[in-house]
Amino acid sequence: MACWLLKSSAVPQVLAPSWSPDQELVLDRCVRPSYRLGLLAPGQPCLLWVSGRDRPGVHAVGTVAGDVDDRGERPAVPVRLRLLAEPVPRSELVADPGFRDAEVLRMPAGSNPSWLTPGQYAAVLSRLPQESLGRWRP
Description:
The chain is an alpha+beta fold. It is built from 5 helices and 6 strands, in the order βαββββααβαα.
């Protein structure tokens, strides 16, 4: 596992209306109870994946910003994300041999968080402008 992938059905402008490209923001993202929550740790790389029909793909890059709050029925994890000026479209990633077997494509309704292998994470990062990577270079 090289990177966590946190899914959202809402585009960033709905999640945080004032969020602008290249701005960092800490968001709490809902996650499903599973063994994966015990593997999440602050500082690990993560991506925001938007699913659905409205611009699906990677919209932000960042890191896990804190521990999972798993009290109650809806666990959440804080993530520090930098919004991309242009998302990495799902259609580009589906066509990439290094990404096409990613869990998020094989099982779109699967667990949140999902994960990427080093090769899958590299396929995403290779499509980002260098200035968007900031401290999230692998």
